[in-house]
Amino acid sequence: MTPIAPGVARLSWPSDLQAQGLGPTVDVVRVALAKAFSDGHHRVEVLVDPDDEVAQRIATFSGLMREGIARKIDAGADRIVYARLADDTPVEEPMGFRRLLNSFLPRKRAISQMLIRAHGESGEQRVLLCQLTYKNDWDLPGGVVEVGESPQLAVSREVEEELGLALEAGPLVLTDWLPPWGGWDDAVCLVFDGGVHHESILEQVVRQQREIRAVRFCTLEEVHELCADFTARRLVAALRNLSDDPGPSYTESGR
């Protein structure tokens, strides 16, 4: 146990103790945690090698919550940071156990988009697309769902923030899984129906200039010209589900 700041200590255990197995090591770590808190520390943390699965299990079974990855912190190596606070709910209680699980179970990013349609003078269907400031291709309006936020409410919030349009999101049209790409982890994209409007709705748009460069209604031909291929596939799949001959309600990268 090494003090690293006022009220904060860092705990580690020797490899020979870990070699004795999960149970004996956890027993020792739990005793060390109790002593640290009784000595007045309010936080105890552990740095664990991401490749050491046994140490990760020891930290978890000892009641330490996973907080994230500290990059290049320990002799130039990445480490998983586990920690426990003196006032954390005991893991023996349901709330404490759920919080412990929540700290290390996988979390997947959710993105909500709105499919806003219009019909041109010739009757052809058009969809509202945004040219974004942080990438070259165009996309449907929407954005990342905040923690604890309803995806359906999130897309209405994003459309109002980015375009100044107060549109209520309709039913879910498509769920599309996005594989890891371009530095992003994988995500689930939920496309909601934004209804059919007259193209004059563009006159009401107030762009959030930090993110939106341009907004317009586009034909399907223009969709394939302006959008990334996976975005175009997702959009076509979503449109099909609003037709008389719907396709699958779940796709992966639009397929």
Layout of helices and strands:
Layout: E1 2-5, E2 8-10, H1 15-18, H2 22-38, E3 43-48, H3 53-61, E4 65-74, E5 77-85, H4 94-104, E6 109-119, E7 125-132, E8 138-139, E9 142-144, H5 151-163, E10 172-178, E11 187-196, E12 212-218, H6 220-226, H7 229-240, E13 250-252
Parallel strand pairs: 2-3, 6-11, 10-13
Antiparallel strand pairs: 1-2, 3-5, 4-5, 6-7, 6-9, 7-8, 7-12, 10-11
Helix pairs in contact: 2-3
Describe the structure.
The chain is of the alpha+beta class and 255 residues long. It folds into 2 domains: 2-104, Aminopeptidase (3-Layer(aba) Sandwich); 109-252, Nucleoside Triphosphate Pyrophosphohydrolase (Alpha-Beta Complex). The chain has 7 helices and 13 strands. The strands form 2 sheets. Strands 6, 7, 8, 9, 10, 11, 12 and 13 form an 8-stranded mixed sheet that branches. Helix 2 (22-38) crosses helix 3. The mean pLDDT is 94. Keywords: Hydrolase, Magnesium. It comes from Nocardioides pocheonensis. Its cofactor is Mg(2+). Residues 106-240 form the Nudix hydrolase domain.
Termini separation: 53 Å
Quaternary state of this entry equals single chain
Order of helices and strands: EEHHEHEEHEEEEHEEEHHE
Per DSSP, the total helix count is: 7
Structural class: alpha+beta
Give the overall shape, derived from the CA principal axes. Answer: elongated
Instruction: Assign a percent range to the helix content.
Output: 25-40%
Domains, number: 2
CATH topology of the largest domain: Nucleoside Triphosphate Pyrophosphohydrolase
| CATH H-level superfamily of the largest domain | Nucleoside Triphosphate Pyrophosphohydrolase
- Secondary-structure arrangement, i.e. CATH architecture of the largest domain: Alpha-Beta Complex
